[in-house]
Amino acid sequence: MKKATSLTKIALRKFLKNFWGVFSLVFLGICVLLAIFAYVLAPDSSRNANQMHLSIHSKPPGFTTTMLTVPTAVAQESAVSVFFFGSKNADTEVPITSYRLTEDGIAITEYTSDGTDGLQKTYPLSAFPKAASVEDIPKQYIAEEKFILGTDKYGRDLLSRMLIGIRISLAIGFVAVFISLVIGITMGALAGYFGGKVDAAIMWIINVTWSIPTLLLVIAITLALGKGFWQVFIAVGLTMWVEVARVVRGQVLGVKQMQYVTAARALGYKDLRIISKHILPNAMAPVIIISAANFAAAILIESGLSFLGIGAQPPMPSWGGIIKDHYAYIILGKPYLAIIPGLAIMSLVTAFMLIGNAMRDALDVRA
To answer: What whole-number distance in Å separates Cα of residue 40 and Cα of residue 51?
Structure first.
């Protein structure tokens, strides 16, 4: 059987032989699918998984309780909106310890964590539109609910918050890396190709930007743009282009001396075509590797910003924000509330780093 001789196929074959690289790529693929179908898979499909049950706060993984679901008046929501953003009109859930049927409804005793009798409430049959009679209420509106990863300090389902939080981490990586690539490749290519005063000016900007601590610069940009979801994306992206620009500049300086570039100039091709069609395609291998590392860095920076309170704002779930809410529980006998999101961040960052290492090995022409 004839082996592939193109550089792309050779690199792909080398990458597929790297167990940890392939394993990490599959893991990231699963994370992307979880992010897309987060609200479908999450037990709590309310927007931002923000269904609170204060009576069952900080419960351990595997906690089970009886839950009464009380329907709320709902406005029409499109299926697409619910799929991607969750339901605005989530039903009210009430943890209960016992209930009894009355002539015109149901009387319940709310759950309390200390074992004492909870608050007693009565709901009329009219509050349950799908129940034709009082006997139908327990069948359709009372069920055992299991919290696989437990609940947070507000009684929200931690598994649901973690699933939806994947979106924040992956989105910050994609958007920030995209911004850094657009700016970094443009600046680096211009500096390396034209040289002279253009190179000196761009390198001055790069050096000044690089001299500012990344986290400090991100915080300054975030405070200038305001706290929020998209502001963090822009802030992180605007601080990650420097390394890309330096690498691209170095690659362009080497590639532009090649004979095919000289031939392109002799044929009268414009500078833009020479840069985009002849130089950059042959200088992108290191940039691809840096992009994987920047994905990991972006996730860590976003988690740090959320921990400091200037990242994604509540009630939007963010892994860094979950750690911020629960890091004090580490010494209160419930460390899992902070360890679970910490392990998730570590796993995602490690996967990107392993993919970067595998890509480096695959694209190394000396290997």
So the answer is: 15
